[in-house]
Amino acid sequence: MAGEVLELQLRERREYQTPSGKIEFVSSRAREMGARGIPCQPELEAERDEFTLLNSSIPKYTHSQFTDVYGPIPQIVWVNDEDAQAVKIQEGDEVVLYNERGKVVVKAMVNKKVKRGVLWAPRPLTGIGGNPLNVLAPCVSRQIGGGPAFSHIKVRMKKAAG
User: Fold this and answer.
1) Do residues 155 and 53 make contact, with C-beta atoms less than 8 angstroms apart?
2) What local confidence, expressed as pLDDT, does residue 62 receive?
3) What's the rounded Cα separation, in Å, for the pair 27 and 29?
4) pTM for this entry
5) Which helix H or strand E contains 77, and what residues bound it?
6) pLDDT value at residue 109
7) How many H-runs (helices) and E-runs (strands) does the chain carry?
8) For residue 59, is it within any domain?
9) Which domain holds residue 20?
């Protein structure tokens, strides 16, 4: 703050803050504690007409504050082409993602980028009607990190009326 130049104290390039002192792709500490060495997504059982909704950050939008710079986050959901055909949804259709907690309206992007039974949307989007995506999230915390369980969202999808 005073305008002085600070020199970072770097560690040796071969020194890592892991029990082995090496890069660990499998956590030895987690295994010692009786957990899996690599985090994994548990299989989620779904009804025939349910989808697992996933979301993640996208370039330019690692957080909602970047909407001030880049504009609104795209109000889209990726839908597998076979799922879209089964529920009679086409590219660009407005769809309602809903469950017992709420609903969000977005536009369908039909592609093969997600597998059957999975939907993907950018985080943290606000739907066409103004509802944020997190209204669909359950009120439970993730096992790793304790944050919202966005990887456990079960939704149904239908074409929006209109």
Assistant:
1) yes
2) 73
3) 5
4) 0.72
5) strand 76-80
6) 98
7) 3, 6
8) yes
9) 13-40
